[in-house]
Amino acid sequence: MKTDTRAEDVAVAEDYYDSDDADRFYFNIWGGEDIHIGLYESSDEAIATASRRTVETMTKMMGPAGKAARIADLGAGYGGSARYLVREAGAREVVCVNISETQNRINREKNEAAGLSDRIDVLHGSFDDVPARDEAFDIVWSQDSFLHGADRERIIVECERILKPGGRLIFTDILQTANAPADKLQPIFDRIHLSSLGSIDFYDQAASGAGLVPGPRKELAEMLPAHYGRVREELISRREELKGLVSDDYADRMIEGLGAWVDGGKSGWLSWGILTYDKP
Questions:
Q1: N or C: which end of the chain has fewer CB within 10 A?
Q2: Among positive and negative, which fits the CA dihedral 96, 101, 102, 108?
């Protein structure tokens, strides 16, 4: 990818997640601590509960590399996963790398309040150019972030670079399926300012090219429409409560955009899952 294209890609993501509308929406509606797709046991389950279940499930999939691990959380958001990993999963240290300084500020404040600032470091940076030395981490962790990168092959190469031998990359991502019609997905691509999403075949090939080997995985396509539908319902039901916090224009566009994700998931054009790759 050309340097100017990458710079534009990073700037778009940074501007979006630093905006007041996005910050207030994700913090108040999406779950606050955890702003990624959840694992639902019922259609009306609380978003925060389902989202935390994703963290718990991923923790169990870290394998031997996760014991007393030093972990890089790429696209860490408000740091909910990082705090869980040090408090509940026994991580030695977590380094959060995130493009939004608004989210980073809240992450630092929450870490300070929890007495975890000595075990969680929060860095402003992009997951395709991580401010870390080679082979620095036992685990590289990410949740629903890689889709925002235009050059996902570069992201996987960067993950391999910062992983120790014997380490594991574990991440979730929204995926497009092999038979997905481009015209049907275009409204989604337009919303996230991209021309495509990754696929399982793509990540397998990118990982192989970077010298990583596949580990355990869970393909959970049904959770994508379940989550976006649940967030959409919550936004609609709490619309009046958000007056003055989130602009009407943003809320309208989000309701429409969330509906497109739901349609894509139910139509089988989009999928979602937890993937792992190991560094020999």
A1: C
A2: positive
Q: How many helices (H) and strands (E) does the chain have?
A: 10, 8
Sequential pLDDT tens for the chain (280 residues): 444 455 555 554 444 455 667 767 776 677 678 889 999 999 999 999 999 999 999 999 999 999 999 999 999 999 999 999 999 999 999 999 999 898 999 999 999 999 999 999 999 999 989 999 999 999 999 999 999 887 999 999 999 999 999 999 999 999 999 888 888 888 788 877 788 899 999 999 999 999 999 999 999 999 999 999 999 998 899 888 888 888 889 888 889 989 989 999 999 999 999 999 999 9
Both tokens assigned to 103? 């989210």
**Domains in the chain and their CATH numbers?**
3-278 (3.40.50.150)
Name the residue among 15, 51, 77, 84 with its Cα closest to residue 234.
Answer: 51
Return d(Cα 97, Cα 129) in angstroms, integer: 10
Q: Is 17 helix (H, G, I), strand (E, B) or coil?
A: helix
Extended beta strands in the chain, E state: 70-74, 93-98, 120-124, 137-143, 163-176, 213-214, 218-219, 270-278
CA distances from 196 to 111, 112, 149, 174, 184 (A): 35, 38, 10, 11, 12
